[in-house]
Amino acid sequence: MNPYIMSILMCNLALGTIITAASYHWFLAWVGLELNTLAIIPILAKHHHPRATEAATKYFIIQATASSIILFSSIINAWHTGTWDITQLTTQPAPTMLLIALTMKLGLAPMHFWLPEVMQGTDTTTAFIIATWQKLPP
Protein backbone atom coordinates (compact mmCIF):
# COMPACT_ATOMS: atom_id res chain seq x y z
CA MET A 1 0.00 0.00 0.00
CA ASN A 2 1.18 3.49 -0.80
CA PRO A 3 2.72 5.15 2.30
CA TYR A 4 0.69 8.33 1.71
CA ILE A 5 -2.56 6.39 1.68
CA MET A 6 -1.52 4.47 4.78
CA SER A 7 -0.71 7.71 6.61
CA ILE A 8 -4.09 9.18 5.61
CA LEU A 9 -5.87 6.09 6.92
CA MET A 10 -3.94 6.22 10.19
CA CYS A 11 -4.79 9.91 10.56
CA ASN A 12 -8.45 9.04 9.98
CA LEU A 13 -8.21 6.39 12.71
CA ALA A 14 -6.87 9.01 15.10
CA LEU A 15 -9.46 11.58 14.00
CA GLY A 16 -12.32 9.12 14.52
CA THR A 17 -11.05 8.35 18.00
CA ILE A 18 -10.75 12.03 18.88
CA ILE A 19 -14.22 12.84 17.53
CA THR A 20 -15.78 10.01 19.50
CA ALA A 21 -13.95 10.81 22.72
CA ALA A 22 -14.70 14.54 22.56
CA SER A 23 -18.37 14.36 21.62
CA TYR A 24 -21.29 15.17 23.88
CA HIS A 25 -23.79 14.41 21.16
CA TRP A 26 -24.88 10.91 20.15
CA PHE A 27 -24.68 11.65 16.45
CA LEU A 28 -21.08 12.91 16.64
CA ALA A 29 -20.07 9.84 18.65
CA TRP A 30 -21.62 7.66 15.96
CA VAL A 31 -19.83 9.62 13.20
CA GLY A 32 -16.50 9.12 14.96
CA LEU A 33 -17.10 5.38 15.30
CA GLU A 34 -18.03 5.11 11.64
CA LEU A 35 -14.96 7.07 10.55
CA ASN A 36 -12.84 4.72 12.61
CA THR A 37 -14.49 1.68 11.05
CA LEU A 38 -14.22 2.97 7.50
CA ALA A 39 -10.53 3.79 7.97
CA ILE A 40 -9.61 0.29 9.17
CA ILE A 41 -11.38 -1.61 6.35
CA PRO A 42 -8.75 -0.82 3.66
CA ILE A 43 -6.00 -1.62 6.15
CA LEU A 44 -7.60 -5.03 6.75
CA ALA A 45 -7.95 -5.73 3.05
CA LYS A 46 -4.53 -4.45 1.91
CA HIS A 47 -3.19 -7.98 1.43
CA HIS A 48 -4.81 -9.52 -1.62
CA HIS A 49 -5.56 -12.83 0.01
CA PRO A 50 -8.95 -14.52 0.45
CA ARG A 51 -8.55 -14.64 4.24
CA ALA A 52 -7.84 -10.90 4.39
CA THR A 53 -10.90 -10.17 2.26
CA GLU A 54 -13.01 -12.44 4.45
CA ALA A 55 -11.69 -10.75 7.60
CA ALA A 56 -12.44 -7.28 6.22
CA THR A 57 -15.95 -8.34 5.21
CA LYS A 58 -16.71 -9.90 8.61
CA TYR A 59 -15.34 -6.86 10.40
CA PHE A 60 -17.43 -4.50 8.28
CA ILE A 61 -20.66 -6.46 8.78
CA ILE A 62 -20.27 -6.71 12.56
CA GLN A 63 -19.23 -3.10 12.98
CA ALA A 64 -22.03 -1.84 10.75
CA THR A 65 -24.57 -3.87 12.72
CA ALA A 66 -23.25 -2.56 16.03
CA SER A 67 -23.22 1.02 14.70
CA SER A 68 -26.81 0.74 13.58
CA ILE A 69 -27.80 -0.55 17.02
CA ILE A 70 -25.98 2.40 18.62
CA LEU A 71 -27.79 4.82 16.34
CA PHE A 72 -31.13 3.14 17.03
CA SER A 73 -30.61 3.24 20.80
CA SER A 74 -29.66 6.90 20.63
CA ILE A 75 -32.80 7.63 18.62
CA ILE A 76 -34.92 5.81 21.20
CA ASN A 77 -33.19 7.73 23.98
CA ALA A 78 -33.67 11.06 22.20
CA TRP A 79 -37.31 10.25 21.61
CA HIS A 80 -37.91 9.53 25.31
CA THR A 81 -35.77 12.29 26.83
CA GLY A 82 -36.03 14.96 24.16
CA THR A 83 -32.27 15.51 24.00
CA TRP A 84 -29.32 13.97 22.11
CA ASP A 85 -26.99 14.46 25.07
CA ILE A 86 -24.85 11.41 25.92
CA THR A 87 -25.21 11.94 29.67
CA GLN A 88 -29.03 11.65 29.52
CA LEU A 89 -29.21 7.87 29.05
CA THR A 90 -32.15 7.14 31.32
CA THR A 91 -34.85 5.15 29.53
CA GLN A 92 -34.54 1.41 29.89
CA PRO A 93 -34.36 -0.03 26.35
CA ALA A 94 -31.65 2.42 25.25
CA PRO A 95 -28.90 1.51 27.77
CA THR A 96 -29.40 -2.22 27.19
CA MET A 97 -29.18 -1.85 23.43
CA LEU A 98 -26.16 0.41 23.78
CA LEU A 99 -24.44 -2.16 26.00
CA ILE A 100 -25.07 -4.91 23.46
CA ALA A 101 -23.76 -2.75 20.62
CA LEU A 102 -20.63 -1.75 22.51
CA THR A 103 -19.87 -5.36 23.44
CA MET A 104 -20.18 -6.22 19.75
CA LYS A 105 -17.85 -3.38 18.76
CA LEU A 106 -15.30 -4.28 21.41
CA GLY A 107 -15.46 -8.01 20.85
CA LEU A 108 -16.29 -8.77 24.47
CA ALA A 109 -17.88 -12.04 25.51
CA PRO A 110 -20.56 -13.17 24.60
CA MET A 111 -20.32 -11.04 21.42
CA HIS A 112 -16.74 -12.05 20.59
CA PHE A 113 -17.59 -14.56 17.85
CA TRP A 114 -16.10 -12.40 15.10
CA LEU A 115 -12.81 -11.38 16.73
CA PRO A 116 -10.72 -14.60 16.43
CA GLU A 117 -11.67 -15.07 12.78
CA VAL A 118 -10.80 -11.47 11.90
CA MET A 119 -7.51 -11.69 13.78
CA GLN A 120 -6.54 -14.85 11.90
CA GLY A 121 -7.12 -13.18 8.55
CA THR A 122 -4.82 -10.21 9.17
CA ASP A 123 -1.13 -9.60 9.65
CA THR A 124 0.40 -8.86 13.05
CA THR A 125 0.41 -5.08 12.76
CA THR A 126 -3.23 -4.90 11.72
CA ALA A 127 -4.22 -7.38 14.44
CA PHE A 128 -2.42 -5.16 16.94
CA ILE A 129 -4.37 -2.12 15.72
CA ILE A 130 -7.66 -4.03 16.01
CA ALA A 131 -6.80 -5.36 19.47
CA THR A 132 -5.72 -2.00 20.89
CA TRP A 133 -6.54 1.20 18.98
CA GLN A 134 -9.98 0.07 17.78
CA LYS A 135 -11.02 -0.56 21.39
CA LEU A 136 -10.46 3.05 22.48
CA PRO A 137 -13.46 4.85 20.92
CA PRO A 138 -16.23 2.51 22.12
From TrEMBL:
TM spans, by residue?
57-76, 96-115
Q: How does it sit in the membrane?
A: Multi-pass membrane protein
Swiss-Prot/TrEMBL catalytic activity: a ubiquinone + NADH + 5 H(+)(in) = a ubiquinol + NAD(+) + 4 H(+)(out)
Q: Which Pfam families match?
A: Proton_antipo_M (PF00361)
List locations, semicolon-separated.
Mitochondrion inner membrane
**For the NADH:quinone oxidoreductase/Mrp antiporter transmembrane domain, which residue ranges apply?**
23-136
What's the chief localization of this chain? Answer: mitochondrion
Q: Which family does it belong to?
A: Belongs to the complex I subunit 2 family.
> Could you identify this protein by its name?
NADH-ubiquinone oxidoreductase chain 2
Gene that specifies this protein: ND2
